[in-house]
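Before a colleague's protein record goes any further, I have to sign it off. My question to you is simply how this chain folds and whether the tokens agree. I do not need a full report, just your reasoning and any doubts. This is what I was given:
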Amino acid sequence: MSHAYEPARVVALLRTLAERTGGPEGSRRLAWTPEWLKARALLRESVAGLPVTVSEDEAGNLWVVLAGDSPRTLVVGSHLDSVPKGGWLDGALGVMAGVELLRAYAQGPRPPITLALVDWADEEGARFGRSLFGSAACVGTLDLDTLRGLADKEGQKLPEVLKGYGVELDRLEGARARMRDVAAYAEVHIEQGPVLESMGKGICTVTGTKGIERERLVFRGQAAHAGTMPMPMRRDSFRAAARFALEVAEIGARHEGVTTVGHAQCWPGVVTAVAGETRITLDMRHIDATHLAAMFAEAQDAAARAAAAEGCTVTWEHIFRIPPMPFHPLLLDAARQSVREVEGHDVALPSGALHDASEMARQVPTVMIFSSSIGGLSHTREEDTPEAHLCMAADAFYRTCARIVTLVADGALA
């Protein structure tokens, strides 16, 4: 642990980023926009004096590599892109902590293994709806046919927009070569939730990311006049959807998971008509695959019963699925020891949000460190974390990475 890692430098970089790409309404780092390139320009500036190579892969991921004695590589990073009017820390903390990691190792003797920092392209998916774009490209889990059909709210097609940033869908496969020598992946991130703050803690080890089942449900009944159709004779699709929404909340609570109906839309959508069709979205999450599967099965049964109770039908349209991603036991031990050294406890939590670590954990040993989030707020300009907690998270991240370097160099992760 002799390298001169300075957590305060991480915070200083984050504040510079906020000055350049933030404002009264929040961060303006939406992927595939000029503001996003401004954020990346700062990243390039911050590593300009280091003995590193900087390059972009076929998916638009920005890589900064410090060569070591072995090509075996510890990859660290996160994402600089943000949601519209987002926070100053989400994703950026992991990137700037990685910059300081490379700076610290570059000041010492040549590392025994190679270190690589990556700014993953379009983690948020805020413009086109496909989260984890860059990391999924490297791991090979993107569906090109789906990507070709995506468009933003202005109607601009994803393939055309990405081409303007040097990314062509037919060449995405080339990004997978970046995984060839990767031995491990580590990421530090804000919690984006209220648990650490409620416990009075600043940091923790992350045990893994929850699995997600995301679906669209379409309830169909019969549109009718709001004044002339008697209540017992209605086939009200919204009432069916409402029944389902209430029951699916109970399903989440029963399994100690989370379930969310985040969007609802009715047709014909006027105050004087019974809703003939109602579409809703469903997001279900759990850290345990068995519980997640049970939640999904119970939700399907609940939807069928809700529809039948209101004389309606229901169909399901699949949106997205990712299994729970538990992190690697040896890396979890490294993170736990680091958190104990920095804050003196052994708190470990699962992540309810997806991260690029979710994709990386499919193929390589992975771990994360969390810092607290004030009020549990994220994806908003009010997003914040006490500076002391940011420094502790960066410190624990560095210590974890140093331990992983030793594990890889000693062949423990071979």
The mean pLDDT is 97. The CA atoms of residues 224 and 230 lie 10 Å apart. The chain has two domains: 7-209+324-409, 211-322.
